[in-house]
Write the structure tokens for this entry.
Amino acid sequence: MTASKRNLNVALMPRTLPLNKFIDLFRTSIESAGNATYDFSWSWAKVWAADAIILHWPDQFFRKSDLPGSLKLYAKITMLWAAKILGGRRVVWVAHNLTPHDTAVVDAKLRDRFFDTLDGIIFLSRRSQQLVEEQYPRLRSKSSLVTVHGHYRDVALSPPLVYRPPQGNVRLGYVGLIRPYKNLDTLVSAAAAVPAIHMHVSGMAQDANDLLEDLQRRAQGAPNITLDARTTPLDDAEVERLIDASDGVVLPYRNILNSGSALHALSRNRPVLAPKIGSLPELQEHVGSDWLYLYEGDLTPKVLEDFADRLRSRRFDGTAPLDAYDWLPIGRAIDGFLRKIRGAVE
């Protein structure tokens, strides 16, 4: 920090999130630039104390609510406007998704009123900015920062293993939430038709009983598939163990904007198979197709076979090239962006 700059007070929602290390890394990157952070909540004291308010998943302003719920949400928007106009506070959205996952009904009027409060948007890829501004033209006039979703190596509990090509049957893994948009039904059906691979699906299936029953039915009679569904989240150590136990990680999204799961697998030096959607092609530009193999269209048995063949035929041991995803320059870029939208360096 130079003498002409004072530290910023940055309110984050959320500031920490159990079992989501991205939030800790994001917060730490802001603090590494010399700023202070605190947990944001909807109180005048919390709003007024901030130089900038950063909201990660403001899903409440997208989803349809009943009348009492809508009135509370409009009151929150009014609070933001008052803080902006009277106190010069700045409101920033980190655009993780185009819309909340698995949301059936969107309140467009409420969403647009929330968008109007924004002073800036942080995008985690160039493609994110393109897709968001295509879907929401009113956001094109907002100040924006295009950065990247940083890697997870700084918070690893155990050192990532150097990747080595598999011998014999290929072990593929999916680790994460078991939810409809993850497209695990297609994955299980495809894997059941490829007996030369072993497919391990692990994660929390909270409020997904119908999906879980469907997955179990699709996996019936397929000894090469292991379904490990939990009612509680996997802890960090187990996530690392499951990724490390795989020769490759499969992320068969139906839709996605940015993928922390892909960065997490690459941070553990595990190649990833995913669809060619969202910002994943941009990630592939940086890490190469050996580390991130993208398919177009549906996930089929042939796609899984091709991925397994690629893993077997790799001729090098290696570490995924993630220098472009270091957190220190991300934190500096966010700091500069917050100061820019405040209008002056203090």
Observations:
- Residues 9-150+326-342 form a domain with the Rossmann fold fold (CATH 3.40.50.2000).
- The first helix runs from residue 21 to 32.
